[in-house]
Specification:
Layout lengths: L14 H20 L4 H5 L10 H20 L26 H20 L19 H27 L5
Helix pairs in contact: 1-5, 3-4, 3-5
Length: 170
């Protein structure tokens, strides 16, 4: 796997560039946490019986990219990628047949769709779709929420990676 380009947004970036820069920074951080590991290592649970794994995190964030930028922002009607009615948290329930190649490809595809959907929307424009409470969100809120989502899960990814092979940092 190739190292994802990871940079910190410019200190003087404008609002949208700052938000997009930090979101991309956190996306690249998650990719770095998974870099160089085997599928088996990526499926390794943090603390059994928990099923929390790096592969599950990548799948979870693919679901989040889809949910916020495609379903909520653009109003697309899409099924979950990994979840089902019987298993709404299916992204975390990885099996021996689940692979990094599939999860990474799906995640990157959802990131590209997210970028495309956000490109034509202003920060203060409201989403087509609505959240659980029936209200729309502006793009600024969605960006901020996604930065928070990635930042929180990148903390988990740091701990998972350290448990797997001792790698720490970034």
């Amino acid at each position: 796997m190739t190292t994802e380009e990871r940079s910190v947004p410019a200190l003087d970036a404008a609002g949208r560039q700052m938000l997009e820069g930090w979101l991309d920074h956190h996306r690249a951080t998650l990719a770095m946490k998974c870099e160089g590991l085997t599928d088996a290592q990526l499926r390794e649970a943090s603390v059994p019986p928990s099923e929390f794994s790096l592969l599950g995190l990548v799948r979870h964030l693919a679901e989040n990219e889809r949910g916020w930028f495609r379903e909520v922002l653009a109003g697309e009607k899409l099924p979950p990628i990994y979840g089902t009615d019987e298993d709404p948290d299916g992204e975390f329930h990885v099996t021996d047949t689940d692979t990094w190649d599939e999860a990474r490809s799906t995640w990157l595809g959802e990131i590209e769709a997210a970028r495309a959907n956000a490109a034509g929307v202003g920060l203060d424009d409201l989403s087509v779709g609505v959240g659980r409470q029936g209200t729309p969100f502006n793009l600024r809120w969605i960006y901020t929420h996604m930065i928070e989502e990635y930042a929180r899960h990148n903390g988990h990814a740091n701990l998972l990676r350290e448990r797997i092979d001792g790698a720490t940092g970034a």
